[in-house]
Fold this protein.
Amino acid sequence: MRMMDRIDTKKAMVITDFDQELASSFKEITNRDAEELLVFNSYGALISQPYGCLMRNVILALYYEGVQDIYILAENAQQHDQDDLLEKMKEAGITEHTLKTLNYLDAVQHNVLNWLAGPSDVHEAMRKNKELITKHPLIPKTVTVRTFIVDRETGGYEEVY
């Protein structure tokens, strides 16, 4: 039996940076029960590479789990401070030389700290996530992608277009 033969209902995928206390908003936003959701947690809900591990998981879930709808949910205050991150890295033994070498090699988007900290504008990040998925050559055009920003304080949310 092929994996596709086992799909009885179409699932929705949620890519999020939420902890469990905000998971209750999934049902309200997606209008689906928990058993119909395939949830991927990603620090910052950011898809930074079109052929990275997260995108690979998205593509495989589309084909093997029957996912037709993708929801990307991020908190409104997800920005990480680069100076704080740099300090933590130095405390862990990462040297400036290592960071400069990675930047020189252009390993990730020209600047390692920018890549790790993520964008400062969460709205723009959600738009880029959506574009990255919808324009990916291995994503069927029939898949819908919606992005939302959730306010941790109020539980309210807004769709990003």
